[in-house]
Amino acid sequence: MSLEIIFLIIYFIAMAGIGFWAMKKGQQDSEGFLLGGRSIGPGVTALRLQSSSMSGYMFMGAGSLGYTQGYFGMWYALGDLGGGILNLSVLGRRMRKLSQILGSITSIEYLEHRYPSKWIRLIAAPVALFCMFFYVLAQFIAGGRGLEMVTGVSFPVALAIAIGVIVLYTFLGGYLAVAYTDFVQAIIMVVGMVWILIATLIAIGGFTKGNEAIGAINPNMLTMWGADLGFQGQWGVIIGALLVFSIGYMGWPHVVVSHMAMKKPSVARTAGAYSLIFNLLFIPGPYLVGMFALILLPNLANPETAIFEVADAVLPTFAVGIVMAAIMAAIMSTADALLLQAGTIASQDIYARFINKKMSDGQMVWVSRITVLALALIGFAIAAFEPPAVAAIVIFSTTVLGSAFVPAYVCAVWWKKANTVGAISSMIAGTAVSVLWQVSGAPEATGIDPMVTGILASTAAMIIGSLASQANHPVPERIVRALDETAKIGPIPTKMLIGQDALLAGQAEMAGRNE
Amino acid sequence: MSELVLRTLVDEDYAQSILQAKAPGLEVTSARLRHHPFAGFIFDVSHLAGRVGRTHALVDYYTGKAFISGPWQAADPDRATQLSPVQDPQWNTIDFDTARQKAKSLLATAALRRARLAWKGGVREHRSVNKVWKPNWVLDAKLDGKSYRIMVDGLNGGYFFIDC
Q: A463 FRET partner, CA 20 to 30 A, in A272, A303, B120, B152?
């Protein structure tokens, strides 16, 4: 058995161990039932948010962009760099507070509580499930490619093993376990990525020499306009590239659920700073290594394997195992969170809400299990025979989810007039416009990215829909009061504001009315 | 109709000291004990490896919010008669069956989130109490010349500003 495989096995066992440890830890505390007891501090919040949103895309898609388009990929990196801090600053504190006041546990349930209507769930759940499937598919492919390279087995076999491990992992732990394993995985990801980057820079004689060598191959790669300068002046595409990973993540249900699990709203601020540090260390790496792979491995058949191949070429054998573990960390932390979230959406947001309202908890688990297994089997069937490009799938599904949900999540905490009609219009418009724009080939014809049109359409629909229906569908009084509570930062002394127990919000409101 | 008044674990002085520890200059001018009505449930929840855990849940009748609580301690009988209930606002009140559904759904979701798909299901109601009265302190206080009304949880000392 090769050293790489031994490292991978050790890694899988270590992650399972952390899962069991966290599960045991959670059982000692009844609050552990809920979102890890809403007990997650800034370090774990930040790194969990980042590792579950970075995914296998960073090791395959980002490397491929660097390899094929040079510094153009940095537009995506720039958006990604600010994404974590933007997500935590815009949504973090307020969403944590509002979700607790409204008693929401899942992110789709949170939307339905904020915009009270069964239609919210009926629209949001399938859209989220549809996009999550594509995102999971990308993780499966990335995992399969990685194992194929390390073990030398054929891609379908490697894919089956990767999917099997990911699905098995979905059965371990709980939110707390996920949070802690994601935290460890984030650290492994940073160490692995920085290691590959440093080894690559040493192999090519340093950053400046590397750039000179790239310039000798194709000087256009050193500009941010693409390998054939095709993106020069294409601001519609560039703005889309900046938006997709900066605000697109705010639409991801499995990512925003991190906000709801924070120990207290003020955690968001510190977590934002930590996530920025993580991003600065991690994000530029894959794009740069992908680009410098052109010097070390100029004739790669599949640019998506650039980082794997570079790691194999520049690192000692034992280090390849560790780096592979880092890559699997990125893939697994995203895939298992997505699968579990998809199972929850299918069982609670669709089956229990619309098909069998008297669902027992045993049935709930079975619907979740069947959903996870069905997604795994369909994913395998698609990926084994004609695997699409990881970058394309991730960018497409992030675009659709971002367009569909970002205005709904942002307005939920920042705009009191945002009502159910506005939210429904926004989700439908965002989904329809971004999907149609993509499949109709409009991005190539107009030079405008679907993220731009999708987010514009959903934002306009939210504003117009909410304002036009205020008379017939006003925001319920209890929601307005909850929002007042969420926004309260003024007259309460700052030191006392931070320590407030939001569980008392409803009781304080009722007692206050009668005093 | 079964009813239970919970013992006040945080007395007036302790409630005051909790706030003053956060804001040393805060002066409490008056304090009243109010009782908030909840539906109470005790469930047996199956965990992994065949273990069963007993969990208490309270559902607020006035807001519909369900949460998991620690085990309940009843107030002394003479103290229990000094009940000062918060009035029913009558615009958001839920009935007992709805409360039961919310409590059960909370525990099922929470158990699934913890044990994930390895959970086999199994949330069984062990006991229910139609009305559990939870004590909260309502304190009037002054800090830097400004007046505040603050609620302090009579069970765990958590606090929340009612108005300023």
A: A272
